[in-house]
Amino acid sequence: MRVLGLMSGTSADGVDAVLASFSGKPSRPNWRILERSALPYPRQLREALVAAGQGQTLSASDVLELAEALTEVHVLTAQSCDPKRLAQLVGCHGQTLWHRPPTAERQGGSWQLLRAPAMAQRLQTPVVFDFRAADLALGGQGAPLVPATDAALLPPIGGWRALVNLGGIANLTLLPPASGPEAKAPVLGWDCGPANTLLDLAAHQFSGGKFSFDANGTWARQGQPDEDLIQSWLQEAYLQQAPPKSTGRELFGRADLAQRLVAIETRAQQANQQAHQQPNPANALATLTAFSAAVIGQDLAKGPPVQELLVAGGGCRNGLLMEELQRRCRGTRVRPLADLGIGDSDREALAFALLAWWHALRHPGNLPSVTGASRPAVLGVCANPA
Fold first, then answer.
1. Domain edges within the chain
2. Is the distance from CB of 328 to CB of 296 less than 8 angstroms?
3. How does DSSP classify residue 217?
4. Quick one: average pLDDT of 329-337?
5. pTM for the whole structure
6. Which residues make Cβ contacts (< 8 Å) with residue 145, sequence separation at least 6?
7. Residue 327 has pLDDT above 60, yes or no
8. pLDDT at 22 over 60
9. pLDDT at res. 277
10. Topology of domain 155-340, CATH
């Protein structure tokens, strides 16, 4: 089956799409990426989505118009990726506005904005969406969902293999080895913490809105990270919490950045013995970049020893972040997932194409070992053209 997968992550910078073919055994399919495409969100739309994801109050009319504008970009991305309308099915994650992990007192909830029936009508193709809801209803985190698709798409190797997506949030997958006593171990995965959320917000703030990210880490390279501050941040409750766990801008967003910049400013005042010492942008960005890598390194150190770490997501294009990741994952081979034929921006779009195919086959798409759900479940809701 030919399936179009669409993904817009926590960074809310645009929509990635792949057209893929799947056949054979669902748990280990034959697959191939046929086409790929990406479209950025218009600046005003991106800013509105980020603001909504930070809890800005919106009217019902605002939410409707935001959903319409967002769906339009998804439709255009789909048409760009599949101009010949070869796709028989579409898998679309939508845009997460708010994610609330479950607690002992309350079931989790997650809101992905998308007008799926309108999208199905425009594309004249069924659209599978709302992938998190079934897992949440079973007591799971609803995320991350990509570890299940990683396990299906990538062959096992002689030891544990790790994958990390450097999107807005860093999420990790650990795949057990092909043979030996741990071959039957469950797939593991969780959201580590911030990858690009704090970096992008800081670059936007320091540049007065001129830049939405620190391209290749060029600005951060001009500064020095505060290692003592990073080590203190690594002791924070979420970063010490055992999986299953998931997070987003709700925890690592503007309010969190403001607190971290205050901490950097205070440290600068103490070092220079000067009052009202403003954070040096380069030093702040260097510290935030190193922190993102340190979060991943800390999590890897807590799990089984991995032979290699495959890296995907927009953070792959930040040379300094990649260098910091290699430095903090000593003894582990770090390389791009693109080496295996899945490009930086392909992984999650391909994952939701596979999840849509699984939905059509009624094959479970979640892993209780990752999300904490009480059992596996078929994920998603299908909207058919009218």
1. 2-145+344-383, 155-340
2. yes
3. G
4. 92
5. 0.95
6. 131, 132, 135, 351, 355, 365, 366, 371, 379
7. yes
8. yes
9. 57
10. Nucleotidyltransferase; domain 5 (3.30.420)
